[in-house]
Q: What sequence folds into this?
């Protein structure tokens, strides 16, 4: 399980990010600003649910 301090800031994503990053991908960054709740993360990283 991802460490909450290093988890992607997008609520639906389980990816771990580097200390100086907030999002794991441009898809997660773009999704965070939308009013739509995603059921499945679309970042494309293996293992992300």
A:
């Amino acid at each position: 399980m991802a460490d909450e301090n290093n988890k992607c800031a997008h609520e639906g994503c389980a990816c771990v990010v580097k200390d100086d990053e907030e999002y794991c991908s441009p898809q997660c960054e773009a999704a965070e600003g939308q009013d739509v709740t995603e059921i499945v993360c679309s970042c494309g990283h293996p293992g992300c649910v």
DSSP finds one helix and no strands in the chain. Residues 1-43 form one domain.
